[in-house]
Amino acid sequence: MEGLLHKLKGLDAYPKVNEDFYKRTLSGGVVTLLSALVMLLLFVSETRSYYYSATETKLVVDTSRGERLRVNFDITFPSIPCTLLSVDTRDISGEQHQDIRHDIEKKRLDSHGNVIESRKEGIGGTKIEKPLQKHGGRLGKGEEYCGTCYGAEESDEQCCNSCEEVREAYKKKGWALTNPDLIDQCAREDFVERVKTQHGEGCSVHGFLDVSKVAGNFHFAPGKGYYESNVDVPELTAEGGFNITHKINKLSFGTEFPGAVNPLDGAQWTQPASDGTYQYFIKVVPTIYNDIRGRKIDSNQFSVTEHFRDGNVQPRPQPGVFFFYDFSPIKVIFTEENRSFLHYLTNLCAIVGEGSSPSLASSTRSYTMDRRRLRRKWR
After folding, report:
1. What mean pLDDT is predicted for residues 130-155?
2. Rounded mean pLDDT, 76-93
3. What pLDDT, on a 0 to 100 scale, did the predictor assign at position 138?
4. Between 291 and 4, residue with greater pLDDT
5. Beta strand 330-337 with 276-290: parallel, antiparallel or unpaired?
6. Sorting pLDDT into bands at 50, 70 and 90, what band is 357?
7. pLDDT at residue 334 in the model
8. Long-range contacts of 367-372 (CB under 8 A, 24+ apart)
């Protein structure tokens, strides 16, 4: 039994050193203090990493079909009044929406960027007692109203009884409505007066759009644009052009997730001397974020390039800010994961072992030197 215990004693990896061979030194104390400090810092760092989840990234082919895309935006136009500014969308499938109003809020801004209080539209508008008839006279008693289309009629029987109908007739002809204050219907509806009242104002527009998940574009332009032979034609023109200087306060696609970076947030562009079209070409990357609680967030990331198209060319492009988007065939999946406790415990053991090595080496060195001195003394 004693032999077995002796053999077991021989397996001791941490033999005890006789106290006669110990010698405490200043250098040893410094090494011990530094080792303890490093161990403490590593312990705190490792514990913090254990309680915070790590994110794993995976790339897969996007096989989703028939989904919708939510576009969140908040954009400021300091030189375009809200009366003229419209929001339009269209995609390669042919779906298009013009002058979208739902889920969008517009705020009138003064020249200093301050929000103007809401006021009743049309105050001080032109008063016209009787509408102008197609034959040139005013609407008489008992007559049926048939307004003129100002040369844009498709037939002799066509009537334009509102400013909107005149504008639509001009659209079909491909004409620009250059002088709306001469259009009786527009004057009656106080459209011109609203534009004049808001002259010099800006507009802040924010909200969201719900579009099909196919390539397309959405744009902000003065006057409702229209699509003809794949070319946008400005409906309204202004002397000297429109100033499309703008600032993108926020632009994102889908629900935001932790760590998401939207490259256009805070982007600002100032128009040079001539007007034109400012274009953003966006590549949308479908993204799924699975958090540590098991919640799934369907979202998107995107990259962007920019281009300014000068308005002094023919055919003249529609002034405005256009966002052309397309989708990547690759989907990114982020998954939050916690490390196992055994992994954490293993790292702590490694920290304690590595941290104690300098002090152990210092003690061993002192012990060896003291032993050599004793040997010389006995000789």
Report:
1. 71
2. 89
3. 62
4. 291
5. parallel
6. low
7. 92
8. 367/17, 367/21, 367/22, 370/21, 370/22, 370/23, 371/21
Query: In this model, does residue 14 exceed pLDDT 70?
Result: no
Give the model's pLDDT for residue 378.
Answer: 46
- Which of 249, 223, 221, 204 shows the shortest CA–CA distance to 107? 204
Answer for the pair 170, 159: CB distance below 8 angstroms, yes or no.
no
Q: Which residue has the tokens 């000297």?
A: 240
- The label of the residue with tokens 């229209």 reads 226
3-class secondary structure per residue, the chain: CHHHHHHHHHCCCCCCCCHHHCCCCHHHHHHHHHHHHHHHHHHHHHHHHHHCCEEEEEEEECCCCCCEEEEEEEEEECCCCCCCEEEEEEECCCCEECCCCCCEEEEEECCCCCECCCCCCCCCCCCCCCCECCCCCECCCCCCCCCCCCCCCCCCCCCCCCHHHHHHHHHHHCCCECCHHHCHHHHHCCHHHHHHHCCCCEEEEEEEEEEECCCEEEEEEECCCEEECCEEECCECCCCCCCCCEEEEEEEEECCCCCCCCCCCCEEECCCCCCEEEEEEEEEEEEEEECCCCCEEEEEEEEEEEEEEECCCCCCCCCEEEEEEEECCEEEEEEEECCCHHHHHHHHHHHHHHHHHHHHHHHHHHHHHHHHHHHHHHC
26-51 helix and 341-378 helix, angle to the nearest 10 degrees: 170
Q: How far is CA 194 from CA 122, 163, 182, 301, in A?
A: 6, 13, 15, 39
φ and ψ of 79, to 5 deg = -125, 10
Burial 84-93 (b: 16+ CB within 10 A, else e): bbbbbbbbee
For residue 221, the tally of other CB atoms under 10 A from its CB is: 26
Count CB neighbours of 262 within 10 A: 18
Contact 338, 11 (CB under 8 A): no
